[in-house]
């Protein structure tokens, strides 16, 4: 499974703690992240993460490209809803791509925990369901 981690600055400690708590669930998957978030997770776990650029420098868009190419299965994006982000259009575009392509996205620890627990149980067989009901975009 291809999983992306993204976190705004004030959420980085939260995503690191989350990755530590669910390290056993994420190991063995293909992990991706924006630059600083990925480095912080790797510094505190044994997880190997492919790091893209920092979010404001285009990392969000690089992950979005994988989503658009149907190469991402799950996105954990801990957003800071109380702080304006200079790259807000990129964030909105990433969330839109998740919606268009039916990719589960967690934007807070509560939803991320639900997804991690489902992944741990092997309950994330949503792809088959999405493909059955996905509108054809090439028509």
TrEMBL record:
Q: Which UniProt keywords apply?
A: Lyase
Reactions listed under catalytic activity? dihydroxyacetone phosphate = methylglyoxal + phosphate
InterPro entries associated with the record: Methylgl_synth, Methylglyoxal_synth_AS, MGS-like_dom, MGS-like_dom_sf
Q: What GO biological process, any one, is recorded here?
A: methylglyoxal biosynthetic process
> What are the catalytic residues?
60 (proton donor/acceptor)
Q: Could you say which residues bind substrate here?
A: 8, 12, 34-37, 54-55, 87
Care to name a GO molecular-function term for this sequence?
methylglyoxal synthase activity
Source organism, top-level taxon: Bacteria
Residues covered by the MGS-like domain: 1-139
Known function: Catalyzes the formation of methylglyoxal from dihydroxyacetone phosphate.
Q: Record's family?
A: Belongs to the methylglyoxal synthase family.
Put simply, this protein is called Methylglyoxal synthase
The top of its lineage is: Bacteria, Bacillati, Bacillota, Bacilli, Bacillales
């Amino acid at each position: 499974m291809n999983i992306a981690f993204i976190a705004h600055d004030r959420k980085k400690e939260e995503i690191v703690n989350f990755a530590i708590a669910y390290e056993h669930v994420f190991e063995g998957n293909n992990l991706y992240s924006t630059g600083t978030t990925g480095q912080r997770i790797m510094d505190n776990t044994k997880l190997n993460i492919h790091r893209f650029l920092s979010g404001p420098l285009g990392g969000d868009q690089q992950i979005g490209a994988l989503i658009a190419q149907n190469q991402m299965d799950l996105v954990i994006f801990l957003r800071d809803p109380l702080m304006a982000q200079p790259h807000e259009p990129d964030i909105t575009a990433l969330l839109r791509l998740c919606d268009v392509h039916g990719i589960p996205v967690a934007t807070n620890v509560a939803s991320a925990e639900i997804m991690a627990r489902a992944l741990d149980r092997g309950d994330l067989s949503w792809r088959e369901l999405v493909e059955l009901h996905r509108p054809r975009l090439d028509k």
